[in-house]
Write a structure and sequence with these properties.
By secondary structure, this protein is of the alpha+beta class. About 30% of the residues lie in helices and about 25% in strands. It has an eight-stranded mixed beta sheet with strand order 4-3-5-6-7-8-9-10, with helices on both faces. Helix 3 (about 35-55) runs antiparallel to helix 4. The structure holds 2,5-anhydro-1,6-di-O-phosphono-D-glucitol and manganese (II) ion (2 copies). One manganese (II) ion binds near residues 79, 122 and 125. This is Fructose-1,6-bisphosphatase class 1.
Length: about 350
């Protein structure tokens, strides 16, 4: 029987995440498999959270916990569930010696002192959308530890700087569930096949369009925005560009990554240093976007050059197509060097 017949009758299912990881590991002779295992552990937790997300309306998982997280934000039940699932998967997987989570004040020590990696994570991004069935996500950032193997991780392991990340990515629980990640050699996307319980390679090499006609921001804060941001947005509107804002960073980011566009979370009165967190939102998404040919800025410098001194430090975020970010920062007055933000950059 010839191949074309075989393909007609038995369509190939494609490349699983597992096979992709093994192939990529084989390309690095000194790779010892720990990072591969860490990515598998994250994917496993993502599958479990995906299951909870898909049946949220049928279980007791929607709604608020009636408590706040360390950030003073109302915790949704799924925030807590996702946090538990990812920390448990990383603890049982053995490769991460510590985890920093949006939902935890301090480092979570997994007990894997022999683990060579640490993970910073936003277990559930877009919490306000959980109960209304709108796309949400998980964002993760991986570093090789700087403290000696065998000892407990310290702050230094998490505050190495954005350009020290060895891998970063997100899981988007959307109309389909996708895992998108980079290990510094381009960006690959995998789509989850529920019936097989596997992620399959669907986007082998993602690069963001140089420009685009979409801007994503919460215009409710319009009167808080710096003048250069308002000037940019007014120009977008004069040109008839589209405003698209889901309220889940991962969803807005993913759409702009594939079609071109810019996501803006400027300083506001409520969050004068920006709302989004450096270590588990801005850094991983900045690493990814630069690997995809895009750009991520804070308004006073590249996101990846921010000097983070606190675990839950926030930053303004302008991320997406390079021509759009460039235009935001140059064609209008230069972002004022606000004291509070300047501290973020060396
Ligand atoms: P999280 O749910 O992890 O706290 O993140 C929410 C973030 C981001 O996902 C989203 O783009 C932004 O907050 C929405 O903020 P506003 O509701 O202020 O627009
Ligand atoms: Mn988030
Ligand atoms: Mn979150």
């Amino acid at each position: 029987m010839n191949i074309s017949t075989e393909n007609t009758i038995a369509q190939p299912v494609g490349t699983t995440l597992e096979r992709y990881i093994m192939r990529k590991q084989a390309e690095f002779p000194f790779a010892t498999g720990e990072l591969s295992q860490l990515l598998r552990d994250i994917a496993l937790a993502g599958k479990i959270v995906n299951r909870e997300v898909n049946r949220a309306g049928l279980t007791s998982i929607i709604g608020s916990m009636g408590q706040q997280n360390v950030q003073g934000e109302a915790q949704q039940k799924l925030d807590v569930e996702a946090n538990i699932r990812f920390i448990r998967a990383l603890t049982n997987g053995g490769e991460a010696c510590a985890v920093l989570s949006e939902e935890e004040d301090d480092i979570i020590h997994t007990g894997n002192c022999q683990g060579k990696y640490v993970v910073a994570i936003d277990p559930l991004d877009g919490s306000s959308n959980i109960d209304v069935n709108i796309s949400i996500g998980t964002i993760f950032s991986i570093y090789r530890r700087v403290t000696p193997v065998g000892e407990s991780a310290t702050r230094a392991d998490f505050l190495q700087g954005g350009r020290q990340q060895v891998a970063a990515g997100y899981i988007l629980y959307g109309s389909s569930t996708m895992l998108v990640y980079t290990t510094g050699h381009g960006v690959a996307g995998f789509t989850y096949e529920n019936s097989l319980g596997e992620f399959f390679l669907s986007h082998p090499s993602i690069t963001i369009p140089t420009s685009g006609t979409v801007f994503s921001c919460n215009e409710g804060y319009w009167f808080d925005y710096p003048q250069y941001v308002r000037d940019y947005l007014m120009q977008c509107k004069r040109e008839g560009q589209s405003g698209r804002y889901v309220g889940s960073l991962v969803a807005d980011y993913h759409r702009n990554l594939l079609t071109g566009g810019i996501y803006l979370y400027p300083p506001t009165g409520k969050n004068p240093n920006g709302k989004l967190r450096v270590l588990y939102e801005a850094f991983p998404l900045a690493f990814l976007i630069e690997q995809a040919g895009g750009r991520a800025e804070s308004g006073t410098g590249p996101i990846l050059d921010i000097v983070a001194t606190e675990f839950h430090q926030r930053t303004p975020l302008f991320v997406g197509s390079p021509a759009l970010v460039e235009r935001l920062l140059t064609e209008t007055e230069v972002a004022p060097k606000e004291e509070a933000i300047e501290q973020n950059h060396a």
